[in-house]
Each structure stands twice: as C-alpha cells, then as structure tokens.
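I had to read the description of the data format several times before I understood it. Each protein is reduced to its one-letter sequence and a matching series of backbone shape codes. The format is easy to grasp once an entry is in front of the reader. For illustration, here is how one protein appears when written out as sequence plus structure tokens:
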Amino acid sequence: MLQFLVLFAVLGSGAVLSAQSSINGRLGAQVGVLESAWLTFTSGALLTFLLVFFFEPPHPMTLFTAPKWQLIGALFGVVYMLAMVFSIPRVGTAAATVAVITGQLLMSLLIDHFAWLGNAERPLDVSRLVAIALLFGALVLIYQSNRIQECSPQADPVEERT
C-alpha cells in the first residue's frame, strides 16, 4: 500500500512538474530564460529554507561533511531548469517533457544496471528495453506531430498568446 501511495505522489509530482515547466517556459519567453530560472530558484530557496529551519530533523551528516560528488545534483537541477525554460517555447511542453522523461529513463536504466552512484543493481531485461523503445517512439511521434503543425499555415503560438 505504501508503494502505491509513493507512486501516486510521484505521478502527481510529474503532473505538477509539467505544469511548472510550461509556466516557466512562457515566463522565460516573456522576461528571459535566466530571469525565469532566477525567480524559480530564489522562491524555492526561500521556501526550502523555511521548511528546513522549522521542520528538518537533525542528520548525522551536513552539506559541509557530505561527499562532494553528491553536491553536483544541485547543479544538475539548474541545467534542467534552464533547458526546460529555453526549450518549451520552441518545441512545446509535450515534446520537452517526453524528451526529459526519455533521458531520465535511459539514465536511470544505466544507473540501475551498472549499480552506479551507490544504488542497488537491477539488470536490464526485455521489459525495460521495451519501455525505453516505447518512450523513444513517443518522442518521435510527438516531434513529428510538432513538425506537421509547424508546416500548416497558422499564427505563431507564442505571438498569439501575448
């Protein structure tokens, strides 16, 4: 039952992440990619600081004593945010999101298979390979759909909404 609740929470987080990416993409197209990312990280830092200050229990390790390679995850978050804010106005929310999910799945399969980063080994099998092939197929279909729509005579969707 707990695993079901965790998966449901992650599914909801994915839905919120797509909405956030779309909102940030629109904001980035209007005020700039870096400004949009700055707003996201500043408000996130403030909220996180308050949560840590009031609710985080003590841990045996701190950010200053944690292995330095583990701190690089924060930089990856910045790369992700900038890539999404830049790409969504250009390729759309669906294409950007499926590309991100495809990249996440591919890397997570490699991490599981080779037990990288201290994770348990979960070897590649046929079902995992089919899953990545299906996601690549979804990415191709969404990309092709975008290309077809770009060729049809319509107003620029970014200009139309502003």
Observations:
- The chain has six helices and no strands.
- The chain has a mean pLDDT of 89.
